[in-house]
Amino acid sequence: MSWTDERIERLKELWTQGNTASQIADELGGVSRNAVIGKAHRLGLQSRPSPVKANESAPAAQPAREVEPAPAPQAPAPQAAAPAPSPAAAPIAPAPWDEDEDDTPRAAPAPSRAQPAAPAAASGSTDAAPQPIIRSIGPGGFLRQTPGEQQSPIPPAPPRRLVPAKPSPEIADKTSLLDLNEKVCKWPVGHPGEPDFHFCGAPSNPGFPYCVQHCGVAYQAQLPRRDRRPPPPLPFGGPRIR
DNA sequence: CCCTGATTCGC
DNA sequence: GCGAATCAGG
């Protein structure tokens, strides 16, 4: 198998979606996990947390593997405003939503630019040869900020429910996920996550998961080939095979 | 053992 | 450029 444009595209997509190399490999088929990893690196895709180099707590313990004769560490510029960053000085703010069960949306705190960030930009005369900023890779592949450029952390979005735990009043008498059983039609009405998402709930056609009407929708006779409409494009490259 | 991603190196 | 072999942590 070769890396066609389509396969590369799919690799990028699956990789950035967070699939593991193995998953991507057998999703694509015809390639090994190693091939996927190798290709991903060659494409310059963001690396994901690797079990191998997950921690980078001790910068000292790096054996002299560099061919490059490490350039003399830059003399600390006379920056009174930049206190020596103490490692482990910046605890991540705790998630603000604690335990309360309400579903009220939360405004993300405005990214306060209290800290004079972007130390590199204002280099005045010689902006050439920007000093390489040493960054560590966090879980998920993000680049950690250096202590000097900390912004207030943006809290991740609170977890969403696919099905509202507290059914809104408008579906109080409708068939919810918990009402499903062998005797009622399981045809979904609306979309999961929407406030009025529910199921048909009519008496099901015996032996089928749906009522007679929805069986008619679910099980359609095949049209002759020449009369068929081309299938709509699948959202994510088709069903997973497994 | 299994899994993971990173890296190396012959092709 | 490719990917098997290898490494190394979970």
From TrEMBL:
Ranges of biased composition (kind: Low complexity): 77-96, 106-131
Domain of life: Bacteria
Any Pfam family matching the protein: GcrA
InterPro entries named among the record's database cross-references: GcrA
Region (Disordered): 42-168, 222-242
Transmembrane annotation, as ranges: none
Protein name in the entry: GcrA cell cycle regulator
